[in-house]
């Protein structure tokens, strides 16, 4: 069956299988920034933005995304670079496997919540697991990026 996705502001008609998940479709279309770890909606590594909101692409049926806007890291390179600088400065990037999903979630948070505090940031990012860091570096980086002191 054919679905229409607006991926990073470009409309595409794509043939998908009824049970195919968004992760597989996007990777097949060349969006290889998207990674997969758990495959069960538990780790956030495969996060993409659907109409601006983070969703786990490993468990999201592609047919449900028909007619919607999808954002991947390829579509927000400048914002990702800006946040990435803070991540590097705070030693928050190690293997980098979780970074695409993490950065997309930070961008969604920035657009959705005005002036979050530390706890608000932790709550929003709770679904994005990292197997390398102790999360403190990530938190420092996001707080600096967003200008949050508490
Ligand atoms: S790979 Fe999708 S949530 Fe873990
Ligand atoms: S930096 Fe390795 S999983 Fe997060």
TrEMBL record:
Record key words, sorted: 2Fe-2S, Iron, Iron-sulfur, Metal-binding
GO molecular function per UniProt: 2 iron, 2 sulfur cluster binding; metal ion binding; oxidoreductase activity
Record-annotated 2Fe-2S ferredoxin-type domain positions: 1-76
Highest taxon in the source lineage: Bacteria
Database matches in InterPro entries: 2Fe-2S-bd, 2Fe-2S-bd_dom_sf, 2Fe-2S_ferredoxin-like_sf, 2Fe-2S_ferredoxin-type, Beta-grasp_dom_sf, Diverse_Oxidoreductases
PANTHER family, A to Z: OXIDOREDUCTASE WITH IRON-SULFUR SUBUNIT, XANTHINE DEHYDROGENASE IRON-SULFUR-BINDING SUBUNIT XDHC-RELATED
Name of the protein in its database record: Carbon-monoxide dehydrogenase small subunit
Organism this protein belongs to: Fonticella tunisiensis
């Amino acid at each position: 069956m054919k679905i229409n996705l607006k991926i990073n502001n470009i409309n595409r008609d794509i043939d998908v299988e009824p049970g195919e998940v968004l992760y597989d479709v996007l990777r097949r279309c060349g969006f290889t920034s998207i990674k997969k770890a758990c495959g069960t909606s538990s780790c956030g590594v495969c996060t993409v933005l659907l109409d601006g909101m983070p969703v786990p692409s490993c468990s999201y049926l592609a047919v449900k995304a028909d007619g919607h806007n999808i954002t991947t890291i390829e579509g927000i390179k400048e914002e990702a670079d800006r946040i990435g600088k803070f991540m590097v400065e705070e030693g928050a990037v190690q293997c980098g496997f979780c970074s695409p999903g993490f950065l997309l979630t930070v961008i969604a948070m920035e657009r959705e919540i005005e002036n979050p505090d530390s706890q608000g940031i932790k709550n929003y990012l709770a679904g994005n697991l990292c197997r390398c860091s102790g999360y403190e570096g990530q938190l420092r980086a996001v707080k600096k990026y967003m200008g949050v002191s508490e």
